[in-house]
Specification:
This protein has 9 helices and no strands. Helices cover 60% and strands 0% of the residues. With 173 residues, the protein is an all-alpha fold.
Length: 173
């Protein structure tokens, strides 16, 4: 990864100004540069070296890649026809069947207002629906004024298109 790509990735990932030290640390990490601190006259028993501490966090480069992926996914979702978008988003589930649409506001990728706009509904209506997400196919069908089978077909088409587009994105990176 070039220095330019690294710095751009940090800025796009964070989306806000970043302190110079944080930027330097991120670029150094991605570049494999390590700070060797002199350890003269230091009692090792009282020092928590990086090697002694377990890193329970996700590496910054992995976090940036995930964020870029989710940003691209949101962009692709927004390009879907509105009924496909609604069929997908109103039923968006994680592997355990729980609500997954909260991922977008939690990561700062899209606000609830952005999601409401993409669904073609008011932010107040979306707020009313929030606790009922993900919706079952019959509820989505009722919301869209179409049949349950049409909802299934729209969501299937949306997923197929997203799979193709995201595969092309992955191969291009």
């Amino acid at each position: 990864m070039s220095l330019r790509d690294m710095v751009t990735g940090v800025f796009e990932s964070i989306g806000n100004p970043v302190e110079l030290d944080e930027l330097v640390n991120a670029v150094a990490f991605w570049s494999g540069v390590k700070d060797d601190i002199a350890q003269d006259n230091v009692d090792e028993r009282y020092v928590d070296s990086p090697e002694r501490l377990a890193d329970t966090g996700v590496c910054l480069d992995v976090e940036v890649e995930r964020r870029i992926y989710v940003q691209r996914l949101w962009s692709e979702i927004c390009q879907l026809p509105q009924r496909q978008r609604a069929a997908l988003l109103l039923n968006l589930k994680d592997v355990k069947g729980g609500d997954c649409i909260a991922l977008f506001p939690l990561t700062g990728i899209a606000t609830p207002r952005d999601i409401a706009d993409s669904l073609g509904i008011s932010p107040n209506r979306f707020a009313e629906m929030w606790n009922d997400l993900p919706m079952d196919d019959n509820t989505v069908a009722q919301h869209l004024g179409i049949s349950r089978q049409q909802v299934i077909n729209l969501r299937k088409s949306a997923r197929e298109r997203l799979a193709r587009r995201m595969k092309a994105f992955e191969e291009g990176t």
